[in-house]
Amino acid sequence: MTAGGGAPTPYIPNTDADRALMLARLGIDSIETLFDDLPAALRDPAIALPPALAEAELMRLLARRGAQNAAGERPSFLGAGAYRRSIPAITAHLVSRSEFATSYTPYQPEISQGTLQAAFEYQSVVCELTGMEVSNTGMYDVASATAEACLLAARVTGRRALALLEPLHPGTADVVRTYAFGAGLRVDTLSAPQAMTAEHACLVAQQPDFLGAIRDLESVAGAAHDAGALCIAVADPFALGLLRAPGDAGADLVTGEGRDLAGPPGFGGPSLGIFAARERFLRQLPGRIVGRTRELAREGHEPRTGYVLTLQAREQFIRRERATSNFSTGQALLALAFTISVQALGPQGLRRAAELCYQRAHDAAARIGALPGFAIVERGPWFQEFLVRGPLPPAELARRLAAREITAGLDVSARPEPEARDALLFCVTEATAPEHVDALVAAMGTIGARS
Amino acid sequence: MSHDGDVGARLAFDRGAPGRRAVDVARWEGTPAALPPPGLLRDAVRLPELSQGELVRYYTELSGRNFGVDSGTYPLGSCTMKYNPKVDDLVASLPAFAEAHPLAPAATMQGTLRTLAELAAMLGELTGLPAVGLAPAAGAQGELAGMLMVRRALERRGDLAGRRRVLVPDSAHGTNPATAAMAGFEVTEVPSGPDGSIDQQALARTLDGDVAALMVTVPNTLGLWERGIEAVAARVHEAGALLYGDGANLNAILGRVRFGDLGFDVVHLNLHKTFSTPHGGGGPGAGPVCATPALAPFLPAPVVTEDADGSLRLVRPEHSIGQLQQFHGSIGVLLRAHAYIRSLGIEGLRAVSANAVLNANYLRALLEGSYALPYQRRALHEVVFSGSPQRREHGVRTYDIAKRLIDYGFHPPTVYFPLIVEEALMIEPTETESRESIEAFAAALRAIAEEAERDPDLLHAAPRHAPIGRLDEAGAARRPVLRWQPPAQPAEPRDER
After folding, report:
1. What band does B251 get if pLDDT is binned at 50, 70 and 90?
2. What was the ipTM of the complex prediction?
3. For A29, which of A124, A185, B127, B311 is 20 to 30 Å away at the CA?
């Protein structure tokens, strides 16, 4: 790769001539000398990697790999935690600006006001959507944010058990258990909020719930508070364009997944964990927080408004083993994308998009429910996901749809809830192509007629 | 970039006018279904109302008030701020990868799964630790995964109750002790010796049968090789404990020595650092864990597995610590890191460590004499200077030096870390800086050292040529203003407590 004494890669400027000059300054002959501290017996092991690829070859390889993914093309009715949204075109455009994309954690506020002010916009948007008073700048994803919320609840209540209200996303429940294993907390799964006890630090409730139904969060929060516990609402921020803000319904902490409004699903990541709280928990928050301040006074200069990372005494680099979390690098670029999408939609656009989602989903469900052999499971008000029972066992129905190049809703028939029995969880959003719904209804009609 | 006016005083929320919009949303034209009962619905949400052009101008203006790797030299120690290849971004944005739903059946995702499997295999090969879990979202979550694997492994062998302590050197990143605590352990700090490596005698005194693991960063945060690490590994294993590696500084030793060969049981890597995915203003990153085969059953879920027919799917390891995210990890970041490694191959990656280390040592030589060097040993990928003479003799703090660097057009290095160096300046140029840019950066720091003697107030008042001057950080913490409030109801200043 170093033919002709040139630079070794397109990303490394040093040529042989540069290296010779630099080594001369160091008074050594070879770069290898710089590694003399490394144990000689273990130096430069044989490492087998595929050969290097020039840019055009790399693109060809990955285009071939992409062609082995059939998922992106075909009609899909999967939701279950990842929802296709209509993302404004300006979002991808603005977050690709390299001043945003190639910077890091804003340790130097004077040259990081772009990241910091955008983070303040994000915190503001999250507080408005959730009805909360404070927000951090975002966490890894909804599940890890929920786990951190549970740890916060255990710290402030001094209790050692967590309660998860079903139906909850199994991935969220799984991550809570992972974090609880480290913290030595017990995790209980409840089928009703009335099963709360005085041992529980919190009650985690998803809105809409994992099977799509809209909860009455006020009664859930009431049950949590009656047991002396905190209510953690895990809310879809897009649905909050239509649904009552969890803070207004009495939730103490709100988490959510911001990825869907930041960009395409990306096979599930990177994601954006929303974490918002009542003000009384401010000093217990995990993660970064941005605050508004002014320039320090200078003679003859009117101080301007600026933004800084603040309340850092909670954080690992200061508090070390007594920190509220080990959180460091987060999801700043996704938080920026989320903020731009929500602000581009604006108050009317967000409401209208949420209603469009609701109407398209309900229309699709009505058409499916009208097909012979198909039924929609009745669960009260719902937003964008619905349970379908067909004339065939769920796995077989999904297989028949796959044979027609349609990806069915998630098979939830193994779940404990009676309503999930024999059911597939279908999702239709405002971004689902109407012709995909037509194709689904036609395929189901054919399948129903033959069985 | 406009430096006029008070950009920070006017958020998107304060701009525009009622009735403007940046994007149209289609109306539902069919028969509408009844909405849920009003008690389940919200009042209007307060959000900005801007035209598309106004919103784009606002965020474009904000971007001009930021500094990235593409803007200039960004030698932030321990963060490996190298140039991010654009083709890697392009790969990750290919619709076939980006548009996939996380629960799409494995049969329809073979291209992504093949790529992830290949990345895991390459990371296993590069670290000598072949059991690889790609799920952790960032370095700190990778640390948590690794330490929970330690916890699970000890639990499985019935050895957890007696092993409550984790040892962490005093030079460690703050995430290490914070992670150990989150994984349910007590932290004991181990001092560094005069050469910057772990004090072996102090280690021997505290390494008992109640220790679960030692967490070590290699090379350490002083940018120095951890001398005798193989002996430390042997001693840790003799005591029945495990050796955890923080791979944040892998850039220094890429292709030259492997964690597995040194005796580590599990390490995490920071793909956004070593494998050059954009740092995004503070994420997203990815923090895979690489471990010995003995720890493979405990890896975080999911991992990619290959069936007899050559098809791939995601599975949960037998005694997995569990999932770390709702789905599978930072796939977009993993795809970029894969593209980076495939672009360079092993020779390219060895050139990375060679030039990263050469650049750091060249910078060290150019600055020696201008700033104190607390450790006289040869540097690896980064070099730590101390501004304590400047503070003592001229009343200039490292903080002031950093701010003055901004006036010279550079991003300052990491400051006040590691904690064991007074007035620390931790500089990591990386391999993607040219000789000329390193010389220019060193010339600026030398000029600042002279300014500190001649005109300390110049440094105290810096930066003068930035979008904004020094900010009242103490005031920000004392009276937190953390979100927009409508002007009609101005935020009440709130006192601490």
Report:
1. very high
2. 0.97
3. B127
